[in-house]
Amino acid sequence: xxxxxxxxFGVVGSGVAKLITDNKNEVSKLGxxxxxxKYILDLRDFPSSPxxxxxxxxxxxxxxxxxxxxxxxxxxxxxxAYEYTMALLKAGKNVITSNKEVxxxxxxxxxxxxKERGVSYxxxxxxxxxxxxxxxxxNCIGQNKVLEVRGILNGTTNYILTEMFTKGKSFASxxxxxxxxxxxxxxxxxxVLGTDACRKIAILTALVSGKLIPTDSIHTEGIVNIRESxxxxxxxxxxxxxxxxxxxxxxxxxxALVSPFLIPKDMPLSQVAGVYNAVxxxxxxxxxxxFYGQGAGAGATAxxxxxxxxxxxxxxxxxxAPVFTKFADVIDSAALTSCFYLAFDKNDREKVSAVFEGAKxxxxxxxxxxxxxxxxxKEISEKLSANSLSPLSxxxxxx
Length: 399
Description:
Blueprint: E1 2-7, H1 11-22, H2 24-31, E2 35-41, E3 55-56, H3 59-63, E4 68-73, H4 81-90, E5 94-97, H5 100-117, E6 121-122, H6 134-139, E7 145-152, H7 155-167, H8 171-180, H9 189-192, H10 195-209, E8 211-212, E9 219-220, H11 228-236, E10 239-249, E11 254-264, E12 276-284, E13 287-294, H12 298-315, E14 325-326, E15 337-338, E16 340-345, H13 349-355, E17 360-364, E18 367-371, E19 375-376, H14 377-386, E20 393-397
Parallel strand pairs: 1-2, 1-4, 2-3, 4-5, 5-6, 8-14, 9-11, 11-20
Antiparallel strand pairs: 7-10, 7-12, 10-11, 12-13, 15-19, 16-18, 16-20, 17-18
Helix pairs in contact: 1-12, 4-5, 5-10, 7-8
C-alpha cells in the first residue's frame, strides 16, 4: 500500500482523488501497488464529499507522517506552495505538481533539492494539461539537438481566436462566450494577457536549454489588441492568428517570448482549434514533432498528475527532469528575425508601398495591410520610425 496526500481540493485536486478512486484497478496495475489517499489538505471542509474523512487543515500532519510517500500539490500560486514543496522534498517525500506558476518561479530550486535528497519532483501537468509533453521531451527527444520548442499553450485564448476566425466575432464577444462556457475566468487577464502561456514557455525552454528564464524577462504579449480587421487581413493572406510561446535555444543564451503570430494555414499549428493545445519541438536530426490534445480541465490535468504518480511508483525515486538553473541574461526578443504583418490607414498607401516595395498587400475597408520581408524587431521599428509610419497593428509571422 502506497500512502499519498493531496494539497488542495479544488477542481484539480478533486479530479485527482476521483481518478485514483474510480480507476483503482487500472492505477494499481500500472503503479504495481494499491494507493491510499490518506490526507487531503484544504482550508475548507467538504462534508458532502466522499473524501470528507480525508480532509485536514494542518500541513504538518502530512509533513511529519513517515507513511506518506508522495504528495500531489495542486493548490496553485507560488505561496504557500513553495514553502510546502521545499519542506516535503527536504523531508524525503516525492512531490508531484500541476502548478505552473511555482514551477516557473522555483523549479530550479526544487529539482536541485530533489536530486540532493534522492526523491522525485515531477510536473508533467504544469504544461499541456493531459498531453504527455515533458516526459517525451526529456526521455525520447533529449538525445537530439533541440533548436526550438513552441506551441499554443493556452486553451482560452485559442478558443477566443478560433471563434473570431470561424464565426467572425469580435474579441470582446468571443471572450464573453468563453466566459459563459466556463473556458475563461471572470478575470481573464492571466489568459488573454499571455501570463499563463509565459509560465509554460519558461518551463519548456528550461527543459530544452537547461536555463530557467525568469518570467519577467520573457517578452509577453496577449491577444487583447487583435481586431476583426486583422482577422480579415490574415484570412486574405491565407493565414490564421495564434498566441504562440516560443523558446529558442541559442549557442550561449536562450530566447523566449509569447506573442500573437500569423501562421499559414498549411502549417500544423494553424489547425489547432478551440480549447486544444499543441507543443512542437524542432530538433536535429529528428525534425519537427508535435504533441496535441486537451490542455486543461479537471480530467486532463488529473490524468497527468496521476501519470506522474505511476512513474514514481514504477521507477522508484528519481528526479523527473535534469536540474536547470536560473538565467536572466537572455537574448532580447527584438533580435528575433521574422516577417511582420502590419496594418495601416489607407491614406498611407503610397508611403507604405514605397517603404515596403514588393511586399504582399491587401486592402480591407479603410486599411491596407502588408507582409514584410524577414527582419528583426529592431529593424522593423527603425524602418517605421524613419518613415514616420505608425501601424494600427503589428504582428509577427511564422513561415
